[in-house]
């Protein structure tokens, strides 16, 4: 569907994107994930045509669109700020693209009504100014405006970043079901790993203008291909040499010349993990209560380690309480030291 | 072939055309006329007809020309003190301290926004001159009071002090309202007393604004025109106008001396504005708060200080309001009442506005009789109506032109950040030159058939002068318009333009349908402020001094000269009061339309529309014509 081939973007001397290669499939929900300034929005803007790459090609359905003007690309965009036209009503915002295409008034009215129904905007809301809508409603208008022209692809640039936590979760689900209903190829930009993991079919993790890994949410989370991805996605413990030495006494398979990580939920607290697992004792140093989960910081004789435990309402450990910690060696992710890649 | 087609694109043709027009206007109407003025100084000829480049400068030092410069400097420096004292007081009293009746006080302090220049000075004259209402009342009560107190330096200082605080009410008020109240609370929490908070926390954040206001006040004093002219004070600008209209037969090198004074004024302005820009570049105090708290008015706990503050506030209110109220009341009184300075309901009349009768003569005892057939009303008098018409057309055209030029330019500046800098500085260029220099330069440079780029047409000849005035009006309003409209442009989210382009809109469509509607309230506000300033503008009209370009302010100024002349047009004082009221109505209406109606966003407008619709339906239902809910 979309293919980026050796895309390089430079801003004066600064290389914002360095030989990016991505293939997005038809109907896929594909996410560009990474920290601020990593190049994810720049890549999106290259696809949309706002930025001309210094090198490389952009293909959509096999056709080279690298130099096709923005307005002829048939790519819809939902902007971070939504970019709704403040001097127009909701209806005029949605109809803007259709008017530009010089469609007949009747056809425009029909299409606007249809898309409004699909994104759950009432007739009353269509007559309002965009400033009179809530954040969630504004987001739906932005999506409706992008979809009404029936684009081949829709690009979303951090569309949930301006919303409060509860609304984000609610709209995340709505967004996913909308995408599935429309079956439209979606490129989604975010720095929020949770958002990327819950929404995406596949994720490209960006770092300093390059893609570190492309994979399904499970692949990037459980089989992070680089140290950066492993660190960026989810919370993680870095294992100290003293603990590595203790683990190797039980199951000698960790290379001391590599860096080793284990995710918090893979550290078992007072729970037997079977044969071959490494077990040690520790004391609860502190506790963070999240409701559904509890995060413990545990002091062992080798290092301080963090663990996340499902809150069953029964086993809640107090400060200085002694606990057993169990780590399965196969849950440990290892990367060569200093290279940043495995 | 490829290159040709690229250059033949409409956008590029439009851009080339625009650049051509810009270069033509910049060199033709900003550089060359002013350069000509500069060279005039050094191309003077002495009595023997020989070129003597330094004759004017020698004359300047030998004669009394230095007095005009010193007087202007004295006025500028004096105003810095008085305007800041009054300006800061009125803003603190209405915005910072909890003073009873602050809303009413604010309205009074803001009256200078609806009448300024000649209208304001004539209003003050109406009260304070030797025949004025208050002077007469004071003299009657205390015969030792000098009836001629309101003239010269004191009168100019008094009038300009209150006239110039309108800038404080606009900009300092805005700055004080933007103060984060949490900083005040934090200081109080740390043990600072209210006055300490004001001095150590509030004032430092106002310093950049105060600095700008001080520079602007000084320049206003230096370039003062209407007040010195009407109140009799020898300063630079009235002297330039006098010299510009003088001939060599009357005195030595008048035009070159006018040019020299203009250049001196320009030098002062350039130095001050350069200092101001350098200071502004250092940056302003920015609030580092994540959430700003709205300023809560501070109570004055000391009862004595509180009473004194209230007395001071209301004394200022009376000073601001008395001319306004008196002028409005007396504009509806007969000439007899105006002359005797007594309000009398039986002397109520609309003659000053619509009357077609005049008072034919006065006797030494103050008696008069009405002469039928003569014209004395504001809207019946040909001269006054002519002035209004000329001022309306010239001001509206120039205000609109300045807005159009600046909107197009700002769009280019934002799109081409590097190249746009040149355009931006070119548009700010007139700010460096005093208005009077620009007008004087136009008057002398275009008063010739030899300027090839205007088709060898004498632009100062007969009706052509109106075009010249429109150009001058437009040019002097460019810097202000640029600063205001550029600020509005910053409010446009860059993603809006991207969104419009993504939806297929061309550059022109994006400009007309997306960007322009967003900045329209600001553009309209700039248009209104420009129009208001130009409609009652006196300085430029007086510099051009052409009977084909007699502006409303010039007509009003001439009324003060005509007043009391035996035999004809003796009702000039009534018409003058009516004129000032008319200016207040026009300015007030324009400001209301722009700030009151135009500033509402779409949401507010739609909500109001909905409210009106519901109200209408309710009324119809009550009358039994509407549908049941």
Short summary:
Chain A is of the alpha+beta class and 342 residues long. Chain A is built from 10 helices and 18 strands.
Notes on the protein architecture:
The complex is a heterodimer of chains A (342) and B (629). Chain A is 29% helix and 32% strand. In chain A, helix 6 links the parallel strand 7 and strand 8. In chain A, helix 2 packs across helix 3 and helix 2 runs parallel beside helix 5. The longest helix of chain A has 18 residues. The model of chain A has no long low-confidence stretch (mean pLDDT 90). By secondary structure, chain B is mainly alpha-helical. Chain B has three domains: 288 residues, MetI-like fold (Orthogonal Bundle); 182 residues, MetI-like (MetI-like fold), CATH 1.10.3720.10; 31 residues. In chain B, helix 2 crosses helix 14, helix 6 crosses helix 26 and helix 15 packs across helix 26. Chain B is globular. Chains A and B meet through strand 6 and helix 2 of A and helix 22, helix 23 and helix 27 of B.
Number of contiguous helices of chain A:
10
Helix run count of chain B: 27
* Count of distinct structural domains of chain A: 2
Element pattern of chain B in H and E: HHHHHHHHHHHHHHHHHEEHHHHHHHHHH
CATH level 3 topology of the largest domain in chain B? MetI-like fold
Q: How would you state the average pLDDT of chain A, rounded?
A: 90
* CATH homologous superfamily placement of the largest domain in chain B: MetI-like
The description of the largest β-sheet of chain B is:
2 strands, antiparallel
Largest binding interface between chains: A-B, 27 and 24 residues
Which residues of chain A form runs of ≥5 with pLDDT under 50?
A: none
CATH architecture call of the largest domain in chain B: Orthogonal Bundle
N/C terminus separation of chain A: 30 Å
Assembly state here? heterodimer
Q: Work out the helicity level of chain A.
A: 25-40%
Beta-strand fraction estimate of chain A: 25-35%
